[in-house]
Amino acid sequence: MPDKNPLDLDELISLGARYADQNNSDGIIEVCRKILKSYPQKLEYRQVLVHSLFSKEDFEGTLRELQPLLKSNFEIGWSNIFLGLAYSKLGQHEKALNAFNTSLEAEKTFDALLNRGNTLKHLSRLDDASQDYRAALEINGESQEAWNNLGVVFMEQSNFSSAIRYFDQALKLSPTYMDALLNKGNALLGLKEFERALKIYQELSCTSQGVPKVWLNFSFYFSETGDLESALHCLDRALGLDPNYSKAWFNRGAILERSGQSKEAERSYSRASELNPDYDFIDGEILHSRMTNCNWSNFDETLSKIKKRISEGRPVSSPFPILASIDDPAIQLLVAKKWVQSKYSSVRLAKGKSNKRTSGRLKVGYFSADFHNHATAFLISELIESHDRSKFEIFAFSYGPELNDEMRTRLKYAFEHFIDVRLFSDDQISDICKDRGLNIAIDLKGFTQDGRPSIFTRDLADVHINFLGYPGTLGSTNYDYIVADHVLIPKHLQHYYQEKIIYMPVSYQCNDSQRIFPGVTCSREEFGLRDQDFVMCCFNNSYKITPSIFDTWLRILKTESTAVLWLLSDSQEVKENLWLRAQSRGVDSKRIVFTERTSLARHLARYRLADIFLDTFPYGAHTTASEALWMGLPLVTLRGRTFASAVGASLLSALGLHDLITASVDNYEARVSELLHNTDDLAMIRGKLAKCRASALFSGQRFARDFECALITAYSRAAAGLDALSFEV
User: Fold this and answer.
1) Which end of the chain lies in a sparser environment, N or C, as judged by fewer CB atoms within 10 Å?
2) What value does the CA radius of gyration of the chain take, rounded to a whole number of Å?
3) Contact yes or no for 216/190 (Cβ under 8 A)
4) Residue 47 falls within a domain, yes or no?
5) Which helix (H) or strand (E) holds 563?
């Protein structure tokens, strides 16, 4: 019922028109409310009210005012578009998707298709988003926004050439369309066409220097070309223009992390999270930067929150931080799949066209950024040297820095073909693989730093293998196999791996029997250790140390007065955090001694100064574990359910030292204490280790023969048109 003394409708409409001419949203909202108070049946003015509230970014108010329209089935298509837009702005994307679906059931419109495409893109349903953008363009092929957004979908799938075609379509319609220009620059970076990308960024930084996103995108160029200082400068320019720019804060955190400034990185990530609590993958980055600093404030609460969000299917973390924090292969698979869905195309080009072995040899390519003095290179060097050249043609595809160090020289000589592809796009690398007729492509990086999993979205070879670098599933059908052993992936856990399993007979880890046994001698005194101390060392990276395992070490220190803990860290922040933790647990901080990174010979030599190596959990020692065992140092490990937590157990099992593998924290703590008191047992283990340097575990030649059998089996199945299948060598 209207009011008894309604305001004159014509006067209100006239007033509203004047407010509209003045772009006075508050005035329009006030007029609409007055009209609706007197004339609630005038739903067209509620429609204007909804539009005005949305324009003012009052999204909760938009939802409230939409309810009478929805109940009255007023303009179902239009009302549900605004319902979806409001939900999208509030981060409720599934609800937004339902609203756009309802709108499209009522009427197939350009706006509904475009906005549903945007929502699907946000939900990482990229193929579905692409279909909606194409359908929208069939209705309105003159939409620069639709062409641009279609390009973004292809760019997010690392299909940069196609993305540029669509950005160019948008730019034909509007040559100064900033989003399309910036996106084209980013796609050119993906193609490694740095000069063309730089030209775009430089022009925009001159013509639009007051626009924050210009500086954000300019930072991508410097990040991609390795100039992290300039990248940081660009991000600071963006934040100077807009201090609440969450994406700039997030990217600032990523640059600082790469620069080794984890504490500052955590601050930037946290600021991004404050501004946008639903920022994709940010929880994992905050967790990892804190773990790198051994800053464990609210650790259990943070992990509980992350696990809950993962179970809800939300994009919480990149895969790597979860390796060091959650010993659950099911969770690691979910996280990897969500990451792949968001970042990479999950569809490899059609198989079935086997590359012919024209030379009679199987062509195998190893892909890595680490063909220099790096842990991976130390492990694989003898494997590469030992390949049977009468049966295998071996390629290196190197996309890391050009470092002329000892290991680079050795590997260049070991590989039959050493191809530097760091300045090549994924498509160009794929073309090289096709030209060379590659049969097997092996990814030695996965989701580790500087990895390029996007290369493996191309059909590089008949068989794609995940090996050595990333200790877990890559969550993608782009890989056929993962190399493991029965300790790492028991058969009852196979279903938590997207890849099929190649079970190696000794251990998944290759080693180098030519690894130096240093003649360098050093003393405990040089490292601040006393001769009478029982030295428990752990030279793992700091992010692998969790509060649970560190507290276990502290309990051992508290009950064993002769024990000291010897850790590796170059960070004062890490040292202070661990010393404070020790003091809070009643342990003298002087009993925790730190050593810094040094030359390989000196690093290996210092293992001799320790009495025992304490493994971390749930991300254990890998290369450091084999180093310790090679140098005759007993390793006590806690085996979990994930690949990353079971490497120590794999190596010890290969050496027959099963009694150093524990299954619980209590068992771990008790075993260390036993060895501390039973010097005869410790001496016996050391004696066994002294003989183990001649074992199968440390023979790169033995591993090569076994691995070649695996490669032949995997290729033979692919060449016969058969799907990948787990098998034992």
Assistant:
1) N
2) 30
3) no
4) no
5) strand 563-568
Contact 282, 271 (CB under 8 A): no
Tell me the residue length of the chain.
Answer: 729
544 and 466 both lie in a single domain: no
pTM of the predicted model as reported, rounded to 2 decimal places: 0.91
Report residue 708: phi and psi, to 5°: -65, -35
Q: How far, in Å, CA of 80 to CA of 666, rounded? A: 57
**Position 488 in a domain:** yes
Burial class (CB in 10 A: 0-12, 13-18, 19+), 294: buried
Amino acid letter for position 353: K
Tokens, residue 715: 């290729």
Range of the domain at 630: 525-696
Report the CATH number that the domain containing residue 393 is assigned in CATH. 3.40.50.11380
Name every residue whose Cβ is closer than 8 Å to that of residue 588 and which is 6 or more positions away in sequence. 582
* Single-letter amino acid code for the residue at 108: K
Widest Cα–Cα separation across the chain: 102
* CA–CA gap between residue 116 and residue 125 (Å, rounded): 11
Comparing CA positions, the residue from 292, 295, 342, 296 lying closest to residue 316 is: 342
251: Cα separation from own chain's centroid: 14
Measure the CA–CA gap between 458 and 453, rounded to whole angstroms.
10
CB atoms closer than 10 angstroms to residue 384: 22
Residue the block writes with tokens 């793992």: 540
pLDDT surpasses 80 at 178: yes
My answer on whether 562 and 625 are in the same domain is yes
Surface-to-core class of residue 97, CB atoms within 10 Å of its CB (0-12 exposed, 13-18 middle, 19+ buried): buried
Please report the pLDDT score of residue 626 as a whole number: 97
Q: Which helix (H) or strand (E) holds 717?
A: helix 700-719
539 and 454 in one domain? no
The CA distance from 403 to 501, in Å, is 34
Residue 215 and residue 192 in contact, taking contact as beta carbons nearer than 8 Å: no
User: Per residue in 417-438, pLDDT tens?
Assistant: 999 999 999 999 999 999 999 9
The total domain count for the chain is 2
Question: Three-state DSSP class for 612?
Answer: strand
354 pLDDT band, cuts 50/70/90, is very low
CATH number at residue 644: 3.40.50.2000
Taken in order 174, 176, 182, 185, the sign of the CA dihedral is positive
Residue 481 lies in a domain: yes
Q: What are 585's two structure tokens?
A: 């647990």
Burial of 561 (C-beta count, 10 Å sphere; 0-12/13-18/19+): exposed
For residue range 70-100, list pLDDT tens digits in order: 888 888 888 898 899 999 988 899 999 999 9
Domain presence at residue 413: yes
pLDDT value of position 474: 97
Which residues touch 243 (CB under 8 Å, ≥6 apart)?
none
Q: Which residues contact 534 (CB under 8 A, 6 or more apart)?
A: 560, 562, 563, 564, 611, 612, 676
Element (H, E) at 538: strand 534-538
